[in-house]
Every structure is written in C-alpha cells, then in structure tokens.
Write a structure and sequence with these properties.
four-stranded antiparallel beta sheet; globular; 900 residues
C-alpha cells in the first residue's frame, strides 16, 4: 500500500528544522499557496462569479497564513503560558471582508494584550519575512486592544479597517475581546462623523482618479463608480450595524430587492474585471488601460457584433455598471437622510447661507427639501408623466440638485416614458427648454442621463449611453463627450470662455436659432456605430428625433444638415490647403450661408474641446479662424485670391536664393492666448525631387516629431516648408536643449542643398497602450479638391518617421509634394498631400493611382511594438472620426424608419 504523502503541517515542521528555516518554510508554503491560487484562477476561467473567485483567493491566503502562524508560534517560537505572550493574527480591511484580488495587499493586524515582548516580536518578524519572501504585499499593524480602540475613536481610516476584522489564527479569545469591544463602541457612537468622513474620502478619491465615471481608461478600484464606491456603501452599513455580517441588516433596510440585485451584479462584474486585470498584468494593476481592455474583454467572453468590436461592447457594459453604482449611492443617501444620519450638503446650500427646510414650488407635488429638489413620490409622475421632464426644468430654473428621493422616484417611473409621452408637445417643450434655454444644461442633462430618463425619452440617445470608441483620441464615452460639448456651448454663450475662444464668443450672439444648434450638438454623434456610417446614420436619427419632438420642418432640415456636416469645418481646416482658393470656394458651396457657417464654427469648437483635456489648442483655433474668415469674406462678395505663399518669409527666401537653402527656428507664437507647444522651423530652398522627403527624414533622424507641415511653392521654383515640431516628451523641440535645435537647423540646410548623408529615424520604443490598437490603413484620392493638384489623404498608425516614409513613396512614384497637412488623432496619423507629377500636372492614370495606393498602404500598415518580453492583445481601432471628407456624399438624408 502506497503511504500517504506528508501533510502540509508535517512538511512545514520538517522545514522548520532545516539549517535555514525561513527559506525552507517559504519554499513549502509557496508551492501550496501557488496551487491554491491556480485553483481560483481556473474557477475564474470556468465562468465563476467575481466575488466567488475573490473569496477563493482570500481562502488561499487564509490557509497559507494559518499554516505559517502555526509553524512560527508552535514549532519555531513555542507559546508560553504567560498572559503577556498572548498573540493573535487578525485580517482587517478588504482582506478581513474575505475577498482578495490576486495581487492585493494583505491587511494584517498583529494583536497583543499590552506591551510588546521579545517572543511576540520574533513571531511577527518571522511571519513578515516569509510573506515578503513569497512576494506578498503586506499592510501590517501591531497594536494592543486598547490601542485599537483608542485609534478607532478618532481615526476613521482605522475604524474602517476594524469594521471588517476577522480572526485568522492565534489567541481566539484575545481577537474576540477586541472585536466585541470595538463593535460595542461603534454601536454607541454617533455614526454621522464616520459617514461624513467616508463621503469626503470618496470625493477626494474621485477628484484624484477623475471626477467623471465615464473616462475611457477607468480605475476599477478607486474610480467613480468602481469597487471602492460599493465598498463605501457597505462600510456605512456596517457602521450602523457592526454586529451584522457585511452590514446585511442595514442593506436590507436601505435597499429594495431590485437594488440589492443590482449591487450584487455590480460587485460580481467589477471583481471579475479586477481579477483579470491583476492576472494579465502580473501585479496589482487597477486601471483598465487600453492595452488591458481587449484581453479582459476576450477573457470575459465578449464577442463583436456588427460594426461594434468586442472591446467596445465590454467597455459599454462597464460604464453602465458604473452608472448603476452611482444610482445605488444616491439611493442609500436618500434612506440615510430619512434616518437623519447624514447631513445633506448640496451645492446650493453651501452657496446660500440659509434656506427653509422644506418649501413648495409652483409645480404641484414638487418642493425644495434641505436645499434640493424633491417630490411627494412616484405617484406624482404616474398622475402626470410630463412632470418627469418638468422636474428637471425646475431643477435648472431654481439651480437645484435632485434630492435622492426624487432621483429614485424618476428611476422607478421610467416605464411611464411611452411613445405617447415622447410625442407629447408639453414634454417636448420642457425638454427643449432645458437643452436650449437652460442655465446649466450640462448639469441638468447629466442628471437626466444618470436617472436613465434621457435615453428613455430620446431612444436615439439611449443607443450611445456608455458607448466608447476604442482609440486614444477620445477621453470620454460618447454620451459624456456630447454632454460636455453642450456645456461648452453654454459657457461660450455666457462669455465664460472668451479668452480661449474670442471669435466663437462673439459670433455665438449672432446665431438666430440656438435651439437648432443645441439639438445638433445633442444629436451629432448618435450615428456612431451605424451600418451606413456615422454621418448618414446620425442624420437619419436626428431627423427621426426632431420629428418626434415636433420641431418645425425648416429647423429639422438645419439640424440634419449640421449633424451630417459636423466634421466638415474641422476636416477642411486641418486636412486641406487654406491658401488654395478652391478649398475656400468648395467649403463655402457646402455651407451655403453665413448662419450655417456661424453655427458650424461654434459646434466644431465645442466638439473638439469636449474630446478631452489638451485636445483643443491654439493652432487648431488659428486654422479654423482662417477658414471662417475667408469663407465669410466670400459670402460678403469679396474675391478669394491665392496669396503669395513666400511673402511672410521674404528675407529667408532671399537668403536661400543666394546660399541654395536657408532655415530658421522660433517658438511657435501663442494663438488666442493659448500657448502652442511646438517649435516652428521654416526652410526655404530651390525645389527638387525628394526635397520634402529629405527634410522630413532629417527631422525624424534627430528625434523630432512633426505635428504640422505646410509646403508652399512659388512660380520661380523656390519652396518654403514650414514644420511644427516637438521632442519625444511632447515639448517644443529644443526647449530643453537649445543645442539640439541649432544642430537641426544646420542639418536641414545641408539636407535642402542635397549635402551629406541623412540618418534613419530611430526605431519606436515599445509602448503597450499603442500596441493595443490595430490601425487600418486608409488611402483616399481626391481629384476635385484642388484645380491644380491631386489630393491624397492617408491615415494609419502614427510612428516616428512616418511622414518621411510617406514622402519617400511620393518621390519614388515620380510625384512632387506641393502642399502637406499633418494631423494626429491619438494613435492615428491623418496626413493630406497635394501632389503633381514631374510636369506639374494632376495624376490622371488610374493604374498609377492604384500603384501609389498600394505603396502607401504598405508604409501605413504597421503596428506599434509592445515592450520587450510582453505580449499585448490588440483590437481594431475606431476610425469613425477621421477621413470623412472623401466619404461625404452629396445626396439628401433619407428619412429612415419611423421611430416610436
């Protein structure tokens, strides 16, 4: 008969007798601990719920610690019967709750009756050293019973960790004594200071992680709508009923059965995400970054559907869960206030010194309760569903936040939003009042979105709630981006952004139909993900929504036009040659009249500014202002003529005629008061084949990142190239090291004269976030955008030296670059080139164009490398915001299917 293998305790006792007991014990424990963690990972792969797997990881740590404690206290440092030698190991914090992510800290309390003893210190030291040998991160504390109680009276962080204290090993009576006395103290204490501290802690955490829950790289643990927010609810519940396991007694009182189910589902989803994050990263990674998202989506079983890839479907689910967590927080706040255990401090109450506790409003059933808008109950909406919309009109008119009771009443009444209500003139009037005439439309529409009312009332909006675009350009979900853009227009109209946008702040007051503008802004992105493309589907959806709202037919056509063309001004300004009269005339023909031009400018400014921090800059503003002014002049009957492209650099051109080439560099001037973080380098030289490619490659070889390029050619054969460049840190090139800038100017002059050898661009460094994107190359050829040149627009993964490589293709194909326009959208570069053949003519041969297309696509078809030794899962990058110029059809927008 085969003898049974030795038990873990037997093996540990044997290891304790080794010459190096710490190393031997660590070896045995590592084997057992890794096996237990592997079993937990298999459960995760098999589809087990998130909290179930988190409990398995905690159980693995429990077993390991109990075994370690036994060998330390019984074998290596045997226990003494003396009272002062009593020692207990207690799990606290998140670990005390019995859940762990794979690389979470182990929060441990080493509990002693009074003062420290040599034996106790030896036990604690051995345990900690072994844990560190195992690679476990430990959050240790060593305290007596009295110290625990004393600290928890004043330190809310200590109180939080002890609320979830759970005995692990050692003297059971000592641990139970501390826990019993602590819970008795908490039960007798006023819970309000603790609740206030937790809510303040949450606010600070949100500010640090990002105040919106809709950032496209969210922090699963500490972000708004993440696990910590859910834990905060349970800590508050536990503080109200410390004897109740996980605060279950209080949770059952404060939440409806439906809210409890929502809470459980959110916990399970977020825990699964967090555990996968840890396992993929091999460390305690809490941020769901771009490089993690495709792999987490794959592991959690998400699949693409239609044009929506798996990663975007997964992230949309994430943001809907985050929204549910926000609703749960509001629901608990409502119940706590009803029990007078939380002081309501709304924004309006902080501003206004005193308001009556309760005051009725002009709408029956609405009142102000402690400085916030509340209702008598959901029956108010049942009697008159239009009051669902009127509630938010009141909130805006009186500058009030919603009371949690009102918030919950709205969410419980969403079934009242029927096709009949969507077409009710009174409801439409209330909604348009908020959107176009409200004081703070961003705040009020955000509240409507959080309750779910906005998506119910406008089904077109409901389809973009929580929608993400898998690219590095957009910082927020589609719905959050749109709401912020509405807020930007409101700020412009109220002259709050006059310094940043002086032109928009001036012309916004000349717009005669703000309602059409705000409707277009609200609906401009509802076509994202549609089968016909963003612009066509967006226009169809906008028409359907406006008709349902009862908007005047002429206004509907204006809204539809704005939605369909909301990218036009940005595309023309950034991707076309503004010195070419054909560009100005084509855009003027598209726009048609000054009112549309004004509306398009304001809409474009708001749209770009709301993409994310730092996306709007002075250079973009200058391009758009130039286009606007030239088209406005055309509408006034003024002639548009091509200006002398070399006039502004006459001195440089004169020097180039003598020396063969001349270059200079300067800091790019601020535009509209906004600094432009680039260095501007101008080079004048005699034109020759390959000149632009040589200049671009010289800059790439010297580590410069070209953010914009402009090429102008005179009739006398002199070329002026103007580049705006940054260094690898995104700062103006040469700002940190002026010598590098001087060396570049000299190198560019040599390259322009065809002297010397040009080096190669450095290989791009491994970047996990960029490696996650599969950027599909796009090449579009337009023969109509210019009267004298063929316009080739290319789009692909951005990388050092890309402009030089593309320019080299044109040269190899026997083409000269007359103008170049460089733009970037996150991980994607979008460059436009005006090219002619060696005889100065457009490229007419279809065969030649097809050869050029294949050569350009070969250069563009690349993926950013991952860091050495790391495999990064990738997904198709969203490209719905770029390359729309060539796609923009001229046919009228179809009506599409009827909406209910």
């Amino acid at each position: 008969m085969t003898p049974a293998p030795p038990s873990l305790d037997d093996r540990l006792d044997e290891a304790a007798a080794a010459q190096d007991p710490r190393a031997a014990v660590s070896f045995v424990l590592r084997e057992a601990y890794d096996a237990a963690r592997t079993r937990a990972e298999r459960k995760l792969d098999a589809g087990s719920k998130g909290r179930e797997v988190a409990r398995l990881y905690a159980a693995a740590a429990d077993d390991m610690l109990k075994a370690l404690w036994r060998v330390a206290t019984e074998t290596l440092f045997p226990v003494s019967p003396v009272e002062s030698e009593r020692l207990s190991l207690v799990a606290v914090g998140g670990y005390g709750r019995g859940v762990l992510a794979p690389f979470s800290d182990l929060d441990l309390l080493f509990l002693r009756p009074a003062k420290a003893t040599p034996r106790g210190e030896s036990v604690i030291e051995f345990v900690l050293y072994v844990l560190w040998d195992l690679g476990v991160k430990v959050g240790p504390s060593v305290r007596s019973v009295e110290e625990c109680l004393s600290l928890s009276r004043t330190d809310m962080t200590v109180r939080t960790t002890l609320l979830e204290a759970r005995p692990l090993a050692g003297d059971q009576r000592l641990a139970e004594l501390m826990i019993g006395r602590f819970r008795e103290m908490v039960s007798r204490s006023d819970p309000r200071p603790f609740i206030a501290a937790k809510l303040e802690e949450r606010a600070v955490r949100h500010e640090k992680a990002g105040s919106t829950r809709y950032k496209v790289e969210p922090n699963v643990k500490d972000g708004k709508g993440g696990l910590r927010d859910l834990n905060t609810l349970y800590w508050i519940a536990r503080s109200l009923a410390p004897e109740s396991r996980l605060g279950a007694t209080v949770m059952d009182e404060l939440f409806t059965p439906r809210e409890r189910r929502t809470s459980d589902e959110a916990f399970d989803f977020l825990w699964r995400v967090r555990i996968h994050l840890h396992l993929i990263a091999g460390r305690a990674e809490e941020k769901l970054t771009f490089d993690m998202q495709p792999e987490v989506a794959r592991r959690m079983g998400w699949r693409g559907r239609g044009d929506e890839p798996a990663v975007e479907r997964f992230m949309r689910r994430y943001f809907l869960v985050a929204r549910d967590v926000g609703a749960l927080t509001r629901a608990m706040s409502a119940k706590l206030e009803a029990r007078h255990q939380k002081t309501a401090l709304g924004l309006s109450r902080l501003i206004t010194p005193f308001r009556p506790a309760r005051r009725k409003l002009e709408v029956e059933g609405f009142w102000i309760d402690q400085g916030r808008l509340s209702v008598e109950g959901a029956e108010v909406f049942a009697a008159d569903p239009t009051k669902l919309l009127k509630l938010f009109v009141c909130a805006d008119r009186h500058d009030l936040d919603l009371h949690p009771d009102a918030f919950s009443a709205v969410t419980r009444s969403l079934s009242l939003v029927t096709p009949r209500l969507r077409r009710d003139p009174e409801a439409s009037k209330a909604f348009l009042s908020i959107l176009a005439h409200g004081q703070r439309p961003y705040r009020v529409l955000t509240l409507m979105n959080e309750t779910g009312l906005l998506g119910r009332f406008l089904p077109e909006w409901g389809r973009i709630v929580g929608q993400t675009q898998f690219n590095m350009y957009h910082a927020y979900t589609v719905d959050e981006h749109t709401l912020q853009a509405i807020g930007v227009i409101n700020d412009i109209a109220r002259s709050k952004l006059r310094d940043d946008h002086p032109m928009a702040s001036e012309i916004v007051h000349l717009i005669s139909d703000m309602e059409a503008l705000m409707l277009a802004m609200l609906l401009h992105d509802v076509g994202k993900g549609g089968e016909r493309g963003q612009l066509e589907d967006g226009a169809i959806a906008a028409r359907r929504a406006c008709e349902r709202l009862g908007v005047d037919p002429r206004r509907i056509e204006l809204v539809v036009w704005l939605v369909r063309n909301h990218l036009a001004l940005s595309d023309h300004a950034q991707k076309r040659d503004l010195s070419d009269p054909a560009t100005i005339r084509a855009f003027a023909e598209l726009v048609g009249d000054p009112e549309r031009l004004r509306m398009l400018l304001v809409l474009t400014v708001a749209d770009i500014r709301a993409v994310g921090p730092g996306v709007w800059n002075g250079w973009k503003g200058q391009l758009m202002r130039t286009l606007y002014n030239q088209v406005a002049a055309l509408f006034r009957g003024e002639d548009v003529a091509r200006a002398d492209p070399l006039a502004e650099e006459a001195e440089l051109v004169a020097r180039a005629r003598i020396e063969g080439a001349a270059a200079r560099a300067r800091a790019t001037p601020a535009v509209e008061g906004l600094p432009v973080q680039t260095t501007e380098i101008s080079i004048a030289a005699a034109d020759r084949p390959g000149l632009f490619a040589d200049l671009a490659q010289t800059m790439a070889a010297l580590g410069a990142d070209v953010t914009d390029a402009r090429v102008a050619t005179s009739d006398q054969g002199v070329v002026l190239d103007v580049f705006r460049v940054q260094d690898g840190a995104g700062l103006p090139y040469g700002q940190a090291e002026p010598r590098r800038l001087k060396a570049m100017v000299e190198a560019l002059e040599r390259a322009a004269r065809g002297e010397g050898r040009i080096g190669k661009a450095p290989e791009p460094a491994g970047n996990a976030r960029k490696a996650a994107f599969e950027v599909r190359p796009v090449v579009m050829v337009d023969h109509h955008a210019s009267e004298t040149a063929t316009v080739v627009e290319v789009s692909g993964a951005d990388r050092p030296g890309l402009l030089a490589a593309l320019s080299r293709v044109f040269n190899d194909e026997g083409l000269s670059i007359r103008s170049a326009h460089v733009a970037s959208f996150g991980e994607r570069a979008v460059d436009s080139f005006y090219v002619v053949d060696r005889k100065g003519r457009k490229v007419a041969s279809e065969q030649r164009i097809e050869e050029l297309r294949r050569a350009l696509e070969a250069v563009l078809d690349s993926r950013a490398p991952a860091p050495a030794g790391r495999k990064v899962a990738s997904a198709r990058a969203s490209a719905r915001d770029v390359s729309e110029l060539g796609r923009r059809a001229r046919k009228p927008v179809s009506r599409g299917p009827e909406a209910r």
